[in-house]
Amino acid sequence: QVQLVESGGGLVQAGGSLRLSCAASGRTFSSYAMGWFRQAPGKEREFVARIWWSAGNTYYAKSVKGRFTMSRDNAKNTVYLQMNSLKPEDTAVYYCAVQVSSSSSYDYWGQGTQVTVSS
After folding, report:
1. pLDDT at 28 over 80
2. Which of 39, 52, 53, 73 could form a disulfide with 45 if both were Cys (CB 3.0 to 4.6 A apart)?
């Protein structure tokens, strides 16, 4: 079993920045990739960013590319989402998830952290 705990959410003005963290723990933590997703009120959950754990390659949704940066700290089993130039439409609950192997989907999810961007 893997546990994911997100932190770093909050209220920020448009144009501001926040950094989210997602710490993974468990008996044996193994990750192929990790991702960030978000869900705004009344909307479907959507993909935000992804990082392949071994190589550190990243991939972003078009809506956040150039503004958000995902990174990882292997020693801490933690991923980060640096969010700059935030917009009101970035307001959502942000979730991290882990994909344990290349043959699986996202296997474990965190509880989410609220990000609110005021205009």
Report:
1. no
2. 39
Q: Across residues 24-34, what is the average pLDDT?
A: 79
Closest by CA position to 20, among listed 72, 74, 62: 72
Element (H, E) at 88: none
Give dist(CA 65, CA 49) in Å, integer: 9
As a whole number of angstroms, the distance between CA 80 and CA 65 comes to 15
**Three-class SS of residue 112?**
coil
Distance of alpha carbon 81 from alpha carbon 56, whole angstroms: 13
- Cα angle 10, 11, 16 (rounded to 5 degrees) comes to 105
Amino acid (one-letter) located at 20: L
Do 51 and 32 touch, CB atoms closer than 8 A?
Answer: no
What pLDDT digit, counting tens, does each position of 45-61 carry?
Answer: 999 999 998 889 999 99
Residues 6+ apart with CB under 8 A from 106: 35, 97, 98, 99
Smallest Cα–Cα separation from 6: which of 27, 23, 25?
23
Six token digits for residue 50: 């992804």
